[in-house]
Every structure is written in structure tokens, then in C-alpha cells.
């Protein structure tokens, strides 16, 4: 239901009090901001068709959509978002909330790839993206206050830890939500969960199988945080591959980091202390692998002659290390695109047979292992 005297897609209709005032209003409209009716006339379609295109409805033929989009571009039509929100009950905004520091979000390539993918998918819709970092209690309080259906139509959550109450809070508020990666508690039973993830366990298994196939006998690992699904899954893949190769999982061969380069170097030093005869290491992220390479170099170990190293992600830095890093590729931009598309489908209440998306990984061979 519209607001009296308001064009939900253009400018106010006005309330003329005299003939002269009416003419002035019409003349202003004809020379000023283009209206929905003007777009319809230019495109040769009905006003309702233009409205459906502007609102991102799928119930428009490709031909009509193309004609409307041409007319919008030619006329320079810009929808009135505030007025349209009163009609559609939507804000045309979605939030990406990352539970990490600003330094990591803007400094690590994983996050940049995800954001690029999300942005490219949202270009296909009228929706705008806003980004929030929520690590400190004050940041989280501000973000939680803003995440309501008065401000956003849906939320994308990234880098979640298992204790995070935000997914439950958002579901209680009725806000469509999609997770980037599974929390550890969902690894066994993803039923009913809306998320996009990569085959972390399978990718880790490929990495270890490759190292064993190269003749490595003492394969260690630097695992990620165990309160995150990605950390648990990559460690599980390592353990499965060790057992399948006839080996025994030894806790002394496992060290932990937080996906940062510094933590990778520290974990590698711990492994060298506990298992000085190791001849390979699978590292659960490329940044941690960079730290591991530095620690190995400082310890006088040659890569790959003495110790082979395989990372996970195929970040740009993997091509710049010395030697270049063998790693497991994960499709970061595609992950972001799929997250955005899944959220848009939820917002539009589109039915899906499976509420989640799992993306494949593969090994990229370079010179570190």
C-alpha cells in the first residue's frame, strides 16, 4: 500500500492548490527526476513490469528486463529507496559481519576474495552491501543493535567461532542469515543450516596424500583454531590421510595457530622442538605456511629437500614465497558469490532442495613440496 501523495519509485506527486501550481508541478516533473511512468513509456512496457524489475523480481521476461534496464540507463532513473521501502517492506541492504579485527580483514587476501565475490553477485540485484567488523565487545554491541529488519534484509556471517551467539540471535529476529563456512558443531549434521563452505577435509586429505606419495615418512601439521569448523575439518582431513596411509596420528606432530603468519612461525618452531626428524608439514593456511617457511629457514632446514611444506588457500602470496608454495586451492570469490546468491534466495523466500553449498578444492603444485 502506497503513501498518499508519494510515488514509491520516484518523486512526490504533490498536492496542487491551483491550476498554475499544477502546471508548475508537471513542468518540474518533466524537466527533473525521471519517473517510473517515464521509464515504462520509454521501454514500451507497463508500470508494473518496471516496478518488478526495479525490485529484483524474477517474474519478468529477459526481453522486458533488458528493455527496462536500457530505459533506466537512458533516462538516468534512480529509485527512491526510502519511499520504496515503505511499499516493499525491504531495505535493499544486506550486511557482511566479520568476527575479526580490521587489520586482518583488510590485510589478509581471504577476506578480500570473499568481499569481491559477494559484491559481484549483488550487482545482479538492487541490493547494497555494508561491512562491519565485530571483534571487541563494543563493536559487537553496535553491530547487534543495527542488525534488525528496519536496517537490513539479511546478514552474511564470516569467520565465526563456535561460542558466537550471533547466528541464533539473528534467527530469533527473523533475519535471513547465511554463514561463510560451517561452525564446528555443524560438521556432522548440516541439516537445516544455510551456509557456503569448501571441502576443507577433502583438501587437507589431498595435501597429505601428496606428501606421502612423495615418500615423506614423518608428516606433521599446523592446524587452525579448533573452535572453528574450518580448523576442525582440515585437522580431520590430515588425521584421516595419515591413518589411511598406514601411519599413526601422533599429538606431538600437531601444532596449532590462528591462521596468521606469526602463529605459523611459532607453531613450526614447536614442531621442530618436539619432532626434529619431521620431513613434511601440512599447514592449514597459506599465511601460516609463510611463517613456517621462515621458521624452517631460521632453523637451517632446506625446503623441500629437508622438509616439504604444503599450505591451504592458494592466496597470491603462495606464488611469492621462496620457494613458491605448493597449496590447496579454495575458490574464495566463488564462495562469496554463492553466499550472496543464497542469501538473496532466502530473502525472496525461494525454495531450495539443499540449503547449503559445498565447493571443491584441488592441489596446486609448486616447489615447496
UniProtKB/TrEMBL annotation:
CDD domains tied to this protein: HTH_LacI, PBP1_LacI_sugar_binding-like
Region annotation (Disordered) ranges: 1-34
Matches recorded under InterPro entries: HTH_LacI (IPR000843), LacI/GalR-like_sensor (IPR046335), Lambda_DNA-bd_dom_sf (IPR010982), Peripla_BP_I (IPR028082)
SUPFAM superfamilies: lambda repressor-like DNA-binding domains, Periplasmic binding protein-like I
Pfam families in the record: LacI, Peripla_BP_3
Biased composition (Polar residues): 18-29
Keywords assigned: DNA-binding, Transcription, Transcription regulation
Residues annotated as domain HTH lacI-type: 34-88
Protein name as catalogued: LacI family transcriptional regulator
Amino acid at each position: 500500500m502506497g503513501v498518499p501523495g508519494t510515488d514509491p519509485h520516484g518523486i512526490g506527486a504533490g498536492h496542487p492548490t491551483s491550476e498554475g501550481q499544477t502546471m508548475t508541478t508537471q513542468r518540474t516533473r518533466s524537466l527533473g527526476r525521471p519517473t517510473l511512468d517515464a521509464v515504462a513509456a520509454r521501454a514500451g512496457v507497463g508500470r508494473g513490469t518496471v516496478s518488478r524489475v526495479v525490485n529484483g523480481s524474477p517474474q519478468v521476461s529477459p526481453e522486458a528486463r533488458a528493455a527496462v534496464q536500457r530505459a533506466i540507463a537512458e533516462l538516468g532513473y534512480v529509485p527512491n529507496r526510502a519511499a520504496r521501502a515503505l511499499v516493499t517492506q525491504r531495505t535493499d541492504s544486506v550486511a557482511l559481519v566479520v568476527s575479526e579485527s580490521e587489520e586482518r580483514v583488510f590485510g589478509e587476501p581471504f577476506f578480500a576474495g570473499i568481499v569481491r565475490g559477494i559484491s559481484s553477485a549483488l550487482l545482479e540485484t538492487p541490493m547494497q552491501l555494508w561491512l562491519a567488523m565485530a571483534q571487541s565487545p563494543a563493536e559487537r554491541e553496535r553491530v547487534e543493535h543495527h542488525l534488525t529488519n528496519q536496517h537490513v534484509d539479511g546478514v552474511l556471517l564470516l569467520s565465526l567461532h563456535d561460542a558466537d551467539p550471533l547466528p541464533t540471535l539473528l534467527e530469533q529476529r527473523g533475519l535471513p542469515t547465511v554463514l561463510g563456512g560451517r561452525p564446528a558443531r555443524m560438521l556432522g549434521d548440516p541439516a537445516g543450516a544455510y551456509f557456503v563452505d569448501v571441502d576443507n577435509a577433502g583438501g587437507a586429505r589431498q595435501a597429505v596424500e601428496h606428501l606421502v606419495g612423495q615418500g615423506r615418512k614423518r608428516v606433521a601439521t599446523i592446524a587452525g583454531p579448533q573452535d572453528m569448523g574450518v580448523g576442525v575439518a582440515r585437522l580431520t582431513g590430515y588425521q584421516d590421510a595419515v591413518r589411511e596411509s598406514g601411519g599413526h596420528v601422533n599429538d606431538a606432530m600437531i601444532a596449532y595457530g590462528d591462521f596468521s603468519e606469526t602463529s605459523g612461525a611459532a607453531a613450526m618452531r614447536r614442531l621442530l622442538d618436539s619432532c626434529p626428524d619431521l620431513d613434511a608439514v601440512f599447514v592449514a593456511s597459506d599465511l601460516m605456511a609463510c611463517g613456517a617457511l621462515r621458521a624452517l629457514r631460521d632453523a637451517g632446514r632446506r625446503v623441500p629437500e629437508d622438509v616439504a611444506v604444503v599450505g591451504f588457500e592458494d592466496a597470491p602470496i603462495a606464488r611469492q614465497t621462496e620457494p613458491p608454495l605448493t597449496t590447496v586451492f579454495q575458490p574464495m570469490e566463488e564462495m562469496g558469490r554463492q553466499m550472496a546468491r543464497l542469501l538473496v534466495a532466502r530473502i525472496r523466500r525461494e525454495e531450495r532442495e539443499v540449503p547449503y553449498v559445498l565447493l571443491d578444492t584441488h592441489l596446486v603444485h609448486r616447489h615447496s613440496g
